Amino acid sequence: MTGEGGPTPFPRKPEQLVQPPQPLPLYDFKALADPPDTWAFLDVLYGRVEDCRVVKVSQLRVLVKHYFWGIDWAQNQKTARTTRKAHNQTTLTKALWKLFWYMQDEHRPKSYADLLNLDRDTGPRLFRYDITPRPPPLSQWFPNQPDDRAFILPAYFRPLDAPLDLPDVVIQQYMYSADSFNEPTVTQQMVDQPFDNEQQFLGINFAANRFLQMPPDDEDLVYDKELVQVPWYEQADYLFDADLEASFNIQTTPRKRKRSLSPSAPNYRGLAAPPASTVQAFQGPVFASRRDPSEWTWQPGLQPEYVSPPPDEPQVGPIIQLAEPVYEHQIVAEAIEKALMQVVYADLERDPSAPSRNEPVKNITAHRFKDLLQMKIGAFSNISSVRVSPITFKWDSKGASFPLRGRGPVWHADSCATDCVIMVGRLLDVGCTRVDRANNRSAEFTEIEKSYIEATNIAWEILDEKMAIRARDEFLQKFIDGQLHLRMGEPLPPWAVWSQVTKSISQFRYHHIERVTPCKCENTQSFINYHEGSCILPGYRRGDDKGVAVGTLIERCFYDRKSFSCKRCGDPLGVTGERRVGQLPLRLVMTFDVKTRLRNHTQHLSFKYTDYDDKKRVAHYRWLGGIYNNEEHARVYWTDSNRGEQTETNVMMYDSQLNKGLLLGGVPAFKPEDRVPNEWVNQRAIPLLFYERIMDPSSELLASAHTAVSDMASILQSDKNVLEAHVAWIPPSTEPQFDPWDRVLSDMGERFTDYNPSWGWDGDPSVNDLENPSATNVALDPALIDPTVIDQSLLDPSLYSNTSAPVFDISAFLESSMMDDDILAQQIPQGSMQDILKTHLFQSMLDTPDWLSSYEHLWPSGKPSKDGALEFPDLPTWPSPKGRKRRRMQSDTSMPDAYDQGSDQTTSGEHKAIVMLSQNIDPRQREAYENHQKEQELQAYLKRKKDKWWSEKKKERKSENEEQIRERNIKIYEAQKAKEKAKEEAKQKEKAKEQAAARATIKPATTRIPPTVASSSTAQQRGNAYSQSKAIQDEKAKQKADAVKKAAEAEAEAQRQAKIDERKAKKEASKPQAADTGAMKKSADVSEL
């Protein structure tokens, strides 16, 4: 052991090292992969460390304990028979080389002298901060996590490769030098005390490194041994007490050995001159050098101008050189990017005419002092996070803490689909963006759309359970009243509600044209159809159940060119269609078939399309979220990052059945590539998905931004102020804001309510009370602050009536001749309203729009094709009666509201019942009868459609059967004709051969032949004739047998073909019958509804 100023001696055993307690848990070093074998440290390859014998085994064990402080690296060396407790030299060297591979370049030893220097800092803080798992910023010199209020030194600069989720205080601790210890903290005591100069306030002590104040060529350097800085755990005289010594098991007084800096440290004072160290000699040993240490040169700017003030100047304060403020590049770039992207996405910003969520709308002009008392108070939630179970997401005081993003409606009676639709509209600002309300588009909103927009702007976080249910049911009841065959408390698919409340919303609209080239058989020219839609409903193809990308499904709907079969001539490629997209939606809405399975739908998607100029383009969208279902239950999963932010793996989750409709943030994703849990996606149809278009600034916008920055630079170069020489900004508009429509729903859930400061004061204050405000007894009634809360004790009892209303007698208004018991019994059929209320259009929340594919009149763009549809279908509504005549009634009784609601064939009894119900006798009975009449008209309409459909089907089936029978008879007739023709041809061939043979046997004699020769030749001719006739007979028999065989084969083939055609005809006849049966069943169900 050397003297007080010498280096620390190298111990013989690892137990002789003095180290602070290690933090728990230790960093898992075994989870890191091994470096490549070609990587070299100190000229030794990692794959050849077994050949390195520079460091001994005893030294390696000490170095391993020193460098692996706070790191778990040990692995048992197992063999076939035993487990060795000690590591060999190769294992220790490989572990050290692997540690130096993951160490930052600024902290890695540069020589074997640095490697054996035990005065350097060690710990996971020296690792690279971009590895996984991420090391904690802890080391022997900095064993604690940095405080969020820690002081950021002026010499600090954020590295370009620093992760965005790490704050500067953590990055600063990662960058502290490992060769010199000086923890730069600014305590309250330091702030309160005056400082001699700015450098001392910022933690830079020039006196500790006085050789840096002089040029390098000065020889007389002075050092102060008292200014040697030691780590925190070495400062035993003032830091540790007896309790801390006992708890850490560290003996501090008396010290057996004092830690001092090694010759490689810049604060070393053992020599007369600064040693040639491999680390940068910077006066503030707080940051490691991020460049080659040999490149360091003397910088005169580091020394102050004056150590003491000039003789002529009074000493009123330190004279220092102020540095220019340093701006972080990332902050400036982010501010510029946000400003430009705000211009790009201006259409999706909230419109000024939309209800404000932060402050009330100012639309009143005061004419007197009393008008100033018209105020509004707002209710806001101050809850930032909730503690729930991370598995079930139910309240749990010991569970995990999740940030609270808001609240929505509370579930009641199968309302989860409607609740999710309201929450999605709130997240998307449906009907409240600039593009939705531009050019007075809010005037086109229907009543149901206005009520939905008001429901999305309700302050759900300030409502209790009962009020939240009432507010949601008010909207749902209004929605159901406008539709046919919908009932409260029955399941509703999310798309059914969404399709009716977003028809006029522009942020989901897109426009495309379809250029159709007819078949050649029609001999007509091409024509163009214009379409617009608000959603995409891709069709199902074989193989989609195994997984398909969302972009592929969109490209099927936005196809470039496609051929279709001609219905007239049957050409499968006769008709050609081309789709050209003119305007893509800012936010894309999609729903899918039940059997379709999506792959990685939470990732960014891209698809190709062709614009109006026939140019190929690619559109990019980012996933926003969607409504998912699991076992007839709906839930919203949404992205937890804003536009342009780093894509995190967390999502937001809303479930109206959990915790009274909380919208939780920071929920861990299922997988990075598919964030929604598997049970909500796999084997489940996704009702609704939402994507937002990724847009880039135009070249004109970037040019304008570049011009603005250049103008500011020119102003600065001309020695002028920017705010004085630039073009003045346009002040914000101060015009009063007005609501575009009268409120449809009630004021329940309004964030801002009327408030008058005079409410709640008991009497008029006297003059003495005004002079002494503390003496006034102010009694502010909280019930009067919120108008929705009414205390019945404050109401006047005279307002209540103690008598009941008289019984209304209908006979006083009708003639005696009209009081027929049979007519009165027929005016409202028994159970009509009950039958109407029992019907419901949907059977499950999983019903897709394909359920209505057979009703072509419900689809605005026509019946969906195999590729899908580009618009939601309309829901059945109450039909408008046609052909009704309105005429006044001739009666002695004054009935100003009575008119004939029936047709010319109305019977007298029905006519009298209608007359009675047309009066304002009982609105409930009148409404019930009108609904019953509408239901009967609808059933009659459906029955006519069903009968017409049945008749057409029967005609088609009859015509098909007749055509098939005719074709079969034709084939049988042709087979018989072929058989007869074959027989006739065989007979003709046989006759021709017989004639030829007869002509060959009879030949005239032209020469005289001698008798002997003649007799011999005659015998020979007779033999030849006999042989020839024998051959002819054999050939004839053979041909006859072949003809008979061919005829039999032809007859068998004809019979077989006839049987095949008959089976095909029966099969084809059974198919339309089965289809008709299924269609008839669905029509019967609708008819029953």
Description:
This protein has 23 helices and 23 strands. The N terminus and C terminus are likely disordered. Strands 8, 9, 15, 16, 17, 18, 19, 20 and 21 form a 9-stranded antiparallel β-sheet that branches. It has a 4-stranded antiparallel β-sheet with strand order 11-10-14-13, with no helix packed on it. A two-stranded parallel ribbon has the order 1-4. It is extended, with a radius of gyration of 48 Å. Among the domains are: 507-700, Alpha-Beta Complex (Cathepsin B, Chain A), CATH 3.90.70.10; 937-984 and 1030-1089. The chain has 1089 residues and is an alpha+beta fold. 31% of the residues lie in helices and 10% in strands. β5 and β6 (83-84) form a beta hairpin. Residues 1013-1029 have a biased composition (Polar residues). Residues 1-20, 865-909, 944-964, 980-1089 are annotated as: Disordered. Residues 948-964, 980-996, 1032-1070 have a biased composition (Basic and acidic residues).
Concise overview:
The chain has 1089 residues and is an alpha+beta fold. Residues 1-20, 865-909, 944-964, 980-1089 are annotated as: Disordered.
